[in-house]
Amino acid sequence: MDSVYSVNKTNKRLKSKNKLKSDGVVFNIVNNLIMIILCIIMLYPMLNTLAISFNDGLDTVRGGIYLWPRMFTLHNYRVVLHMDTIYNAFIISVVKTIVIVVTNLFFTSMLAYALSRKEYIFRKPITTIFVLTMYFNAGLIPNYMLIKNLGMINTFAVYWIPNIISAFNLIVIRTYIKTIPESLIESARMDGAREFRIFIQIVMPLIVPTLATIALFVAVGSWNSWFDTFLYNSGKQELSTLQYELQKLLASAMQAGQRTPAGGTGANAAAAAGASNTSTPQAVRAAITIVTAVPILLVYPFLQRYFITGLAIGSVKE
Amino acid sequence: MATNIQALPGKKKGFWSIVASQRELILMSVPLMLYKILFSYVPIVGWTMAFQNYKPAIRSIWKQKWVGFDNFVKLFTGVNGARFIRDIVNTMGQSILTLVLGYIFAIVLALLMNEMKNGPFKRIVQNISYMPHFLSWIIVCGLVSTMLAVPSSGGIVNDILMRLHLIKEPIMFLAEPKYFWGIVAGSNLWKELGWNTIIYLAAMTAIDPSLYEAAVMDGASRWQKMWYITLPGIKSTIVVLLIMSTGQILEAGFEIQYFLGNGLVVDKSETIDIFVLTYGMRLGNYSLATVAGIFKSVVSITLVSLANFISGKLGEEKLI
After folding, report:
1. What is the DSSP string of B223-283?
2. Is ipTM beyond 0.90?
3. What is the pLDDT of residues B102-151, one digit of tens each?
4. B155 to chain A: which residues are within 8 Å by CB?
5. Do B301 and A162 touch (CB under 8 A)?
6. Residue A51 touches partner B, C-beta closer than 8 Å
7. Mind listing the domains of chain A with CATH numbers?
8. pTM across the whole model
9. Fold category of B80-313 in CATH
């Protein structure tokens, strides 16, 4: 808003601007202080985890690790990378995310294109069928029964097939496609292009900014999900995901925590970690947390521009 | 209904000839519609389990014993009833606390961020505040349990409270029922606070700058500008979001209660979703779990319709 004040500097305004400045200095200092505290609160838990993941496991048990490792080691990461289950889960998580992003974006935008055509005879009923699903859900048990009856329990298919279209993203993309000038599509049709080719060659390139936003949301959702693995694929270790492996570690830590409130400590814990006597479940968990979080934390700052405009489009209804 | 514009000039163009001329659009959409019907509407057939004494051993859903509304009665009476009603209270308590805190803090933070000078510092602060939104609930639950642990296990909260001499002994946050709702609301606040400011900040950029100019001319202070211009400027956004969130009142999340809830705090932690999971997947009582699910769906749809109606009455945009 500062630029606003610099327009038309009349005397009167200069005076009020000076008055504003003095009352603004204290405000700015306090405000910036609040923001710094906010950043510390937001960052500390992850930085603490990062420090623990690089600290010697047994040393961590002594307490007092805040932002910096006391006894630096890469051992915890070495342990994690040598756990076959984690390595495999990482691959499954990556493949699953890529498959979901590609199929979801393709099918959702294809449908959005069809439903953006005003002349399309089934436009209304199909839109209604999709929009309604945003407001109700058959529930956990009926959904589970369906997946079971389709024979998709313990298969990779259960990760992506139920997720190829989301109603909300459909509305967002359709809203965006409607802003494309009709003349562009019309002229392509004159040249003899069929609908599918118009969608691929003309519409797709024009909606890339929206697709980038939605790709980010879908990717984050897929990468972070664990319930599908837990519910449908927990019986098959080869299909386990990173989040689910982390969840299992966390669950066992919580149970241990209930018995001994101080958390897994000492020899027991080290023995449980297996590979070495300087790594504890706490340290391994910290390392896996970092491995799980880093891919997304590396990507999102670069997409900030996109998701903010994307949210703005999403908030515009129909 | 959308009458076909292209069809009008010819007048006589029948339904089937339109279908034929739009076969590509149909090919692009109808299979996906059938897919959606299979995955979102067909499972509703499973609601018949609510009226049966469902035994998984009997394969066919139609050969089960029909019991009418017995399961609905069972859900609200006796031992199950006491448990389910407790879970409704917990669900609503947690979600309302989360919503109220989330709203107030997000609006205040957005107001403060809006007062910052545009520059790298503001961008960094915003980016950091969005960060927790991208972490999974599994990670967040792990962080929360560490932060709330005893100081020797890295519990920074107890550490700070003890150094400030506010407490003498560390508090076992996760073992005391009275803290649980607060922990749910606090975790949600940490995770979504920055993210929730985005929509308000976007609404603030739409406020006409000449309003601020005029206020400055009249000698308005910073607080007065925030109170009389910025806040009224985002009022409709606040109202719409508030109304929309009524449909979320039975959605208290799942992961925190599932991971951080334990035997000691179950009276305050168990929610409807956990009830459904426990009865359905663990105890194998599909019928009761389905009834609980139906209850949740029906209440949610009712609330959304109500919110939509109120929104229309208030002259705001209809949401559906």
Report:
1. HHHIIIIIHHHTHHHHHHHHHHGGGGTT---SHHHHHH--TTTHHHH--HHHHHHIIIIIS
2. no
3. 999 999 999 999 999 888 999 899 999 999 999 999 999 999 999 998 88
4. none
5. no
6. no
7. 1-53 (no CATH), 74-318 (1.10.3720.10)
8. 0.85
9. MetI-like fold (1.10.3720)
